[in-house]
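User: Please run a holo structure prediction.
Assistant: Happy to. Please share the sequence and the ligand.
User: Here you go; the ligand is BZD.
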Amino acid sequence: ALLRGQMDTTDMNLPSPTPKSSDPARLAADIVDRLTYRIGKDATVATPDDWLTAAVLVVRDRVVERWMESTRETYRREGKRVYYLSMEFLIGRLMRDAVTNLELVGEMQEALGELGVELDLIRELEPDAALGNGGLGRLAACFMESMASVDIPAYGYGIRYQNGMFRQELSDGWQVELPETWLEHGNPWEFERRESRYEIGFGGHIERDDADNCTWKPAERFWAEAFDTPIVGWKAKRVNTLRLWRAEPIDPLELEAFNRGDHMGALQDSMKAEALSRVLYPADATPAGQALRLRQEFFFSSASLQDILRRHMAQFGRITSLPEKAAIQLNDTHPAVSVAELMRLLIDVHNLDFDTAWDITKRTIAYTNHTLLPEALESWPVPLFEQLLPRHMQLIYKINARVLREARATGTFDDAQVAGMSLIDEHGERRVRMGNLAFVGAHSINGVSGLHTELMKETVFKDLHKLYPLRINNKTNGITPRRWLMQCNPGLYNLSREVTGDSIMSDLDAMKALDTVAEDAAFQERFAAIKRANKDRLAGVIEKRIGLKVDPSAMFDIQIKRIHEYKRQLMNIVETVALYDQIRSHPERAWAPRVKLFAGKAASSYHNAKLIIKLANDVARVVNADPATRDVLKVAFLPNYNVSLAEVMVPAADLSEQISTAGMEASGTGNMKFALNGALTIGTLDGANVEMREHIGAENIIIFGLTAAEVAEKRANGYSPEEVIAASPELSQALKAIESGVFSPEDRNRYADLVAGLRMSDWFMVAADFDSYAAAQRDVDGIWAEQPRWQAMAIRNAARMGYFSSDRTIRQYGREIWNVIN
Ligand code: BZD
């Protein structure tokens, strides 16, 4: 009996688990059961948090059967599995997701109701799991849900950060970062897998035997321990696994040191281990550059690959069939060290020769690129890399020699081009280029929108694309309609179904039927009433969080995303100042009442981004206090933007701001969430906005500004913002007001440098696009004044977003990259 895990139990007569009933009375009894036996509390003294935990445990029980069945089915079928490696999974709350996908909403409401507990109230207590920065992390979460929904066997692999994205508070309008403690009350969704742990090494040296076989002898070693969270697909068709790694010391207490009296030294290993999975780096564009970040990247890459190879060998017993049975997708370059680690495992552990290992690696790995910003591309100093991962450095040199040989053999590249393709950047301090490593080690490199993919071919990977012309492909991003329509906007979901029928959650294209009622006055009225109810709810949240009263009948104009100069929140604020000025000068005009809403976090070290947050708050303070504009303009910055806040803001938006400098936003996914929820977009021809315009129709989206080609041309031909500013009285006025301290009387110079940056270089083309943006905003006012037209446009937006379901995206990955569906 002690060895049951290793025994063949097929003909033993083990009792089977009791299937879990979904009858409300049974659910209620189970909830009380969990409360009593798992939490150890009596119903009379249970806190709301206790009820939530008990309810989660009961829901989780209903997931487990489907989970095990999904695992068994893939095993029996000898199916291929997808492994999604990502430093970030921005999953948010899981309760509503699980309950809706299990189709247990009514039953759970009834069960909890019987116990005097309201599902909607305890749901709000669930911590928002923010194991990611922004779009890249949220995309990974949407993909996990979609892979389960379209029935692809998949594992997400990442890090179980003890502290995820920081909590943002505002202190006098300045961002303050506080640690987020999402695990404070435990995490009832996860299963700790003490048996699934792997050794992770760093540093040390390489031993070579007589046959030239290498063994890496790391100086430091840790355990990676697995924590599994089930991810339920739509209608619980399939349940997949999100496996997150926590670092553990191998030697928690070095007794020898302790006994010598070195009590702190005895804990050194524990502390070093703890640091590995302690905290998410809160920077979403500039690479962290610290050794700890590279250690995190290797830690989770190595653990995941060891797990993948163990599973493969246990089932198939032959390493060479790996590419037929496993597809590994790298979410950006953060797990790019996997290319070298897979090579090491294949060569040093599985004893393959270099060529065979290289062939297997390339056929197994694929890479998704999420940015072209040159400063965002990861690279590591060679000395650091060598010191932490000596064997991997050796393999990278070997891979590099082979790639450069292939490049030279074509006879089409000059030395500068070959140097650009090298895995080692030789300009100045030598560095390992992670983008190039991911590119050469993958059979597929994809961009995340049509425009981004084309630019990738023309810029960062120009020569590698010439060398390997079949590798780059596009997979335009998507969002899961379960979370981003059904759950966050049940009003619109239910109304839509009256027209579309019940299939929209598995076939978002069916929303198209709404086109037929876009002009119908009665339908428009109901559509508008739902928007209004969502706005009432958001108005309540605004008042509660920052004490500002806003009029829910005004246009809600929203920009929510990470704060970045290329996303141009600054352009939006400057236009707000210009509008404020106009309203004060012409109070007699019929201004469309607006509430301008902002939310988003700035990387802790990003000075200008933090200043932009302060500016939004300074402008808000002045505008909101001015009786002259009281009825037509309000400005608010909501603190601590996260997935849960997005779920309230997105359904309440009338206007969605997607105004990045063309060529700089790889795709955007917030843009898709807003349009699906019936907001109009004001935006540039950037990222997925381009494709949204194609699907929604140019007449239903407000596009302005320079194209990516025009931006590139302007930059190349010497652009002078000062001339542009001088030619625009509105812009001149607004900039003068900001730089002279109108919004910062207590510190008149606060924005001098920020504005000087616009005047002197304006890399992000705020001035160049300003007039066209302001004019587009006045067009928006004009449409708002014709409500039937606005409503028709909004309905057509919701109707035509079917293409942007992440189910579509995932099916394309499944067919064209992973080869797991036909
Ligand atoms: O990825 C974003 C892009 O900026 C968006 O345009 C795109 O829609 C999404 C999804 O493809 N990139 C990120 O969110 N990047 C990061 O969060 C990040 C995190 C750590 C280090 C570097 C970048």
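The radius of gyration is 28 Å.
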